[in-house]
Amino acid sequence: MSQMFIAEMRVNEVLYFPERDGMSAKSVLKGYTTGLDPYYATVEVFGHQAEHVNSSLKKGSLISIAGVLQVKNKTGHDGNVQYFTVIRAVRPIEFISGIKNVVERINLPSPRSLADVKAAKDAVAGVVQGFGVEVLPIQNLSFMALLVERRQDEKLKPIHDWIVSLARHFKD
Fold first, then answer.
1. Is 81 exposed, middle or buried (0-12, 13-18, 19+ CB in 10 A)?
2. If exposure means fewest CB atoms within 10 Å of the residue's CB, which of 33, 47, 70, 115 is most exposed?
3. Which of 114, 86, 108, 116 has its CA nearest to residue 2?
């Protein structure tokens, strides 16, 4: 039986393993949970989310994580088995602080660089989910912009404006 783990975490290290041989990309985040009883945590993130956190997080970033606790083991050179706990993220990582710096560092693709409206929606979903905005690629771009606007976070305005420009370009 798996146990859910939800916490805020201060990132100390981000390790990235790109997609290879049919395996999805993976990021490993290491750091300490916040609160009265800090806990050292290792978080695994896969796929597009892994690529996003790798390009957006840095040492000191404060994030919110939700995942499943997993106990793994490895055998050392001396033959001793070491056990360790890993949190496998089951929801998008949410950025709590440093959002302005993250937004400034995101490379938002221009409308002309995206093949079609589906590619635009996929790009939007990949970017905004890291900020805790849940969108579905079946939603239209104008509605996605509205969801970002509802966050009422001035730091997300460049992302909102980017989505609006995509909506205009693709007439969606």
1. exposed
2. 115
3. 86
Burial of 8 (0-12, 13-18, 19+ CB in 10 A): middle
**Considering only CA atoms, which of 90, 108, 112 is closest in space to residue 148?**
108
pLDDT tens-digit readout, 104-132: 666 788 888 888 898 888 888 877 876 77
Overall pTM surpassing 0.85 (yes/no): no
Structure tokens at 2: 């798996």
Name the residue ranges covered by the structural domains of the chain: 3-97, 100-170
- Residue 39's contacts (CB-CB under 8 Å, 6 or more residues apart) are 7, 32, 33
**CATH number 3.40.640.10 is the correct assignment for the domain at 3-97:** no
Query: How many Cα atoms are found within 13 Å in the side-chain-facing hemisphere of 137?
Result: 11
Residue type, 104: E
Question: b or e along 93-111 (b: 16 or more beta carbons within 10 Å of the residue's beta carbon)?
Answer: bbbbebbeebbeebebeee
The pair of structure tokens assigned to 34 is 């916040």
- The answer to whether the Cα torsion of 135, 154, 104, 171 is positive or negative is positive
